[in-house]
Design goal:
This protein is an all-alpha fold. The chain has one domain. Helices cover about 80% and strands about 0% of the residues. It is built from five helices and no strands. It is elongated.
């Protein structure tokens, strides 16, 4: 356990929440861009515009926000007392975070498909996938705040 001062702890928590919000914004918006991109003819101006938007969202917002979220989240984890590591809420939250990281990785792969004009998935696929980060976020917040078990 790292013994953070109360001032440092609240700043780390605030920065963690801010970075998670930025990361979630990207996780919720990128699939929406993919939905619209599905309707664009490969090589068209519209498709090329979506490629720029998707690349900037992923590289300039989502990736840095994810890294910062993990750094500050790791600091918060390091500040937990030893007994918390056996709590079910923490294991459940961390599982949801791992699944969110998996979603981020899959979105990166889907982005590469669009970038290479090789997407084979329909817009409906991305509509369904757009809901996954929301469900995981709900689980993470409930496990971290309510601590149901």
């Amino acid at each position: 356990m790292i013994d953070l001062s109360s001032t440092a702890f609240v700043w780390i928590k605030a920065l963690h929440i801010i970075s998670v919000m930025a990361w979630m914004a990207g996780l919720l918006y990128l699939p929406r861009l993919f939905i619209y991109h599905c309707d664009a003819e490969p090589g068209s101006d519209k498709s090329e515009t979506f490629k720029i938007m998707e690349r900037r969202l992923l590289r300039a917002i989502m990736n840095p926000a994810m890294v910062v979220s993990l750094i500050f989240g790791g600091l918060l984890l390091a500040n937990l007392d030893i007994d918390s590591w056996t709590d079910g809420w923490l294991h459940s939250k961390l599982l949801c975070v791992l699944l969110l990281l998996g979603m981020h990785g899959m979105m990166n792969r889907w982005w590469r498909d669009f970038e290479n004009d090789s997407n084979q998935r329909p817009a409906k696929f991305y509509r369904v996938m757009n809901e996954v980060p929301t469900a995981l976020m709900i689980g993470i917040v409930i496990f971290a705040v309510v601590k149901p078990f």
